[in-house]
């Protein structure tokens, strides 16, 4: 994600200090993100929203790119699914119309 930010900044002719100002972060924070000394996953929601605005991306997309949201956040753990299946099977077993 940080690379995308810098590519967009270069495309728009923004210097690093101007980019940091636009994103509402210190130039040192931007530098640390670029060099990997700071991870995007440590950024606050307000900064993520500024990144999303700058990139014209949905906030959720930037949260995913920043590794703050994972695909596993969108589904229940397997044990919840197992319980739901067990309940459905029990319902069918108890229902005379489903009884075999």
UniProtKB/TrEMBL annotation:
Keywords, ordered alphabetically: Plasmid
Protein name: HTH cro/C1-type domain-containing protein
Higher taxonomy: Bacteria, Pseudomonadati, Pseudomonadota, Gammaproteobacteria, Oceanospirillales
Tagged with keyword Electron transport: no
UniProt-listed Gene3D superfamilies: lambda repressor-like DNA-binding domains
Keyword NADP: no
MF GO annotations: DNA binding
SUPFAM superfamilies hit by this protein: lambda repressor-like DNA-binding domains (SSF47413)
């Amino acid at each position: 994600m940080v690379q995308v930010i810098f590519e967009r900044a270069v495309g728009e002719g923004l210097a690093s200090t101007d980019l940091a100002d636009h994103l509402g972060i210190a130039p040192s924070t931007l530098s640390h993100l670029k060099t990997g000394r700071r991870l995007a996953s440590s950024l606050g929601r307000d900064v993520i929203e500024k990144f999303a605005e700058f990139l014209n991306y949905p906030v959720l997309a930037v949260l995913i790119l920043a590794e703050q949201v994972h695909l596993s956040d969108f589904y229940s753990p397997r044990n919840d699914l197992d319980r739901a299946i067990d309940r459905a099977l029990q319902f069918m077993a108890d229902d005379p119309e489903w009884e075999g």
